[in-house]
Amino acid sequence: MTTSLADVASSDAALRAFLHGLPGVDRVGADQRAAMLGTRSIKTTAKAQAIDLAISMVDLTTLEGADTAGKVRAICAKAVRPGGGAPSVAAVCVYPDLVAVAAEALAGTPIKIASVATAFPSGRSTLDVKVAETERAVADGAHEIDMVIDRGAFLSGRYKKVYDEITAVKAACGDAHLKVILETGELATYDNVRRASWLAMLAGADFIKTSTGKVSPAATPPVTLIMLEAVRDFRSTTGRQVGVKPAGGIRTTKDAIKNLVLVNETAGDDWLTPEWFRLGASSLLNDLLMQREKLATGRYAGPDYFTLD
């Protein structure tokens, strides 16, 4: 483990100097590389394997104000047995007050329970409220906390405040993993995406996540590319591996496979597992299942063949 980052978080000035000293992102280059990788074609057996891998990486998500215990139970059942012999998904992601419902429904399965504690999606609350919400979600059975950063603090250069909130929530997680949501659609520049990625990792994030899914644009390929470069470079610098979770707007099998190509070509094989890469989505699973059925039988099953999420 390198010691060169030991004093980076000692003050706002030190954090600012480090984050603004990171190499700038070539916006044109990032856009072009992401577009080029998005044209890669995967066929037949490789496509079938990619679809099953993508299914195993899905964080099946319901984050609506109208969510009910019944809806969460139904999604949990689908997470365990998506249909057609497909593998289980990686996790089910719900609001904190529904964690206990998911925990009961998923008891005895390997599927993780993720919860969006910390005043999701705005992040506009006091730290004690964010910590209390995190502790309650973990006590109710959450294995993973998807925390949203205070974008107002980040964009106004109060990096230490963001860092301290992440470290406090990380401590409140206990044994649970912490996914830090950057809300990249509000960060304005690719340079800010890189800086926020490094800030979250320095503060102890186990995963960095693009978006809440409530702001557009969400998980664009160039943004995911930049975050994958960040985790690759962070491991090279510190020896610690951090996962990536694009979320929001990933709806089709084509979208999912593009993300797998980005992972393989940018971070490498080490990230091509559900342990280190997730796809946050609500409607993606159905399309993956339909494409899987098409490969197996030669014909499409209608969208009503699978349960609606």
From TrEMBL:
Enzyme Commission number(s): 4.1.2.4
Originating organism? Nonomuraea aridisoli
CDD domains linked: DeoC
> What family, per the record?
Belongs to the DeoC/FbaB aldolase family. DeoC type 2 subfamily.
Quote the Pfam families the UniProt record gives. Answer: DeoC
Instruction: Give, as in the UniProt entry, the pathway in which the protein acts.
Output: Carbohydrate degradation; 2-deoxy-D-ribose 1-phosphate degradation; D-glyceraldehyde 3-phosphate and acetaldehyde from 2-deoxy-alpha-D-ribose 1-phosphate: step 2/2
Protein name per Swiss-Prot or TrEMBL? Deoxyribose-phosphate aldolase
Q: What sections of the sequence does the record tag as coiled-coil?
A: none
The keyword Lyase is assigned to this record:
yes
Q: Mind listing the UniProt keywords for this protein, alphabetically?
A: Lyase, Schiff base
InterPro entries named among the record's database cross-references: Aldolase_TIM (IPR013785), DeoC (IPR011343), DeoC/FbaB/LacD_aldolase (IPR002915)
Query: What chemistry does it catalyse, as a reaction equation?
Result: 2-deoxy-D-ribose 5-phosphate = D-glyceraldehyde 3-phosphate + acetaldehyde
Of the GO CC terms on this record, one is:
cytoplasm
GO molecular function terms listed in the Swiss-Prot or TrEMBL record: deoxyribose-phosphate aldolase activity
